[in-house]
Amino acid sequence: xxxxxPVARQHFLAALASTSVVVxxxxxxxxxxxxxSFGVNTAFGLGVTPGYLFPPNFWVWTLATHGVVxxxxxxxxxxxxxxxxxxxxxxxxxxxxxxxxxxTVVNISVGVLGAFSYLLTYVxxxxxxxxxxxxxxxxxxxxxxxxxxxxxxxxxxxxLKVPQIRMKVVPMLLxxxxxxxxxxxxxxxxxxxxxxxxxxxxxxxxxxxQRHSRGRGDMSDHFAFxxxxxxxxxxxxxLVASLVHRVLVKVRICRKTVKRxxxxxxxxxxxxxxxxxxxxxxRRRQLALxxxxxxxxRVEDQSWPSMEEEDEEDGGSSSNVDSPLLPEKSQNSRxxxxxxxxxxxxITFHDxxxxx
Length: 356
What we know:
Elements: H1 4-17, H2 21-36, H3 42-46, H4 50-53, H5 62-65, H6 73-89, H7 91-94, H8 96-125, H9 129-132, H10 140-154, E1 158-160, E2 165-166, H11 170-183, H12 189-209, E3 211-212, E4 215-216, H13 234-250, E5 260-262, E6 270-272, H14 278-303, H15 307-322, H16 326-355
Antiparallel strand pairs: 1-2, 3-4, 5-6
């Protein structure tokens, strides 16, 4: 720990220094509220309490503040790392304003959906503890949103080599880990609910509502809801998701998938979907070319012999075999050239009187 903590601290400060004012402000807010929690119960006043969010209390400000409220050191550290990672990987693609909008949308959605789920639980059980003893706060909701956004942008990148884990499976893998921890009663239920609603709300926003240079949302196949699940479950999940999407389209919550055809393109016909970012496509092409070049380089290093050894062998054989014959060949070539010159001069001399 004494070796790696200073290095990790240095990398974290360097990454934080390269981010915008939005990321720095969020980190400062997390630290301020964490130190304030030693003297004040910040989770009660700034976290979402289902019984106080709904009428007649209307503590609506907690929807905007619960995502930066932490009471433990490890939770505050996770919040800072999540915000810095979002600023490092998502802010260059979206911009500072869009990152702030994404943070706000995910946190408000997590607060509303979490409070509504506990309200339904109270209706089913009539237990007032679900309304007034539950505190929804922390970074797990935004962490789920950041992982979904990273799946959208860098889904094919490798997060862990042994065993090989790609970024596209990390959101559901972490959800499974949190579910196991909840079953083992190692974490509270509100943490699992916050992360799950963060994954769901961020996917809905990025899929249908986020504004891009070419439209709204991302209707590409690699970002469909079924891709969050294992391949054996994807057909069933895809069927259910398509039915839910049709219902949402009829009630005008979501829009239909619109395809645009560019007939005037230099190639045959190109199909572009609204919400696809050309920068993402270019980045994926660069990653694929880099992987292909590395693979070809490894194959060439294994299959092709060394050229230096061949040059040494060829040089030695030519010096031993051809060196005695070089003077004779050069003398014959000089004799032949001189004879050709004399014949040409004679022919020219004999032809000159006829021309005169």
